[in-house]
Amino acid sequence: MLRKFMRSLTPTLLLLGLLAVTGCGPKQKRIVFLNNNDSPFWNAARAGIQEADQKLNLKDAGMTAVMEINDGTAEGQISKLRQFRTQADVVGVAISIIDPNNVAIVDEMKALQAKGIPVVCVDSDIDREKFRDARSYFVGTDNLLGGKVLGTVAKNLRPDGGEYVQFVGKTGAQNARDRMDGFTQAIGDKEKYPEKGRMADDTDKTKARDNVRDAIRNNPKLAMLVGIWSYNAPAIVDVVDEKNRKDLTVVTFDAEALAVAAAGEGKIHGMVVQNPFEMGYQSVRLLKAMIDKDNKTTAEMLPQKDDKGENRDFYNTGLRVVVPDGSKLTPEMFKEFGDKVQFTSFPEFKKWLAAKKLESS
Q1: pTM for the predicted model, two decimal places
Q2: Distance (Å, rounded) from C-alpha 264 to C-alpha 226?
């Protein structure tokens, strides 16, 4: 009877039956990079992730590395982390924290680690004093240093002083706080350089432009506009063009494609550029080493002690100061930062982007 039944089945039905019994083969394990919003800033990180996937031969290890896009909210990250915890194919997580003091995010990170899934922060960290045990390492920029470098850019561009406003997505994010505080520390004299506000836009591009309009309208003596997150640069440039305010000095973090174009036209007077390509690549490299228990690679990336003799949990992906042709900024102005900061002309930066096949950084 069974033999007669099997003969009556079509080849397609037989194939479906076999797949139901045997499955579709082993599923690739995933290293997941969870960003904080859909900014073009992450395009370079995605390129780094893809290069790591290929160069580190993840396929041979039954793995792949992918980026997950967050919706710009803490709730979005919480939901994604919960999903990862229930998905058997997730073996490592890198996350750019949107809210460094969100206990629910921290709890989900700890729950992943309790399952044996290594977690690292990238680009933006948790509150290091309260929740350091929620992740193993941080991969990214020394944001306090980055803020100081940008403040040094501004100070040398406006040596006679002037009012300034800082623009950012979320003022509470760890990278935002560190950058803005570093900028204020470096620019120094509060009477000579009064800070007139720190304006948040919640990653809303329309609000980002409205904030610039409001700052210009409400501060007649405004001299400098400071972009802290990547999309703030093109938002600032758009409004400065709209208002025809060539007297304003524009200094920004990062180099989205639109910001690169604006810098090429001399509309951004100095950029401090991170390396999201390396953030993507090195976070995957580190997570793979942790998954494989490859202590040699981990030790190479993160020696046990830093130059102060403290346990090191931070892989620094570096900073560049990028200046347009004809800038009065010179490498000597940044000597205090040593080899932590690379001074780069705009043409040199464009060559680096082309070599990496990138439009932004």
Answers
A1: 0.82
A2: 18
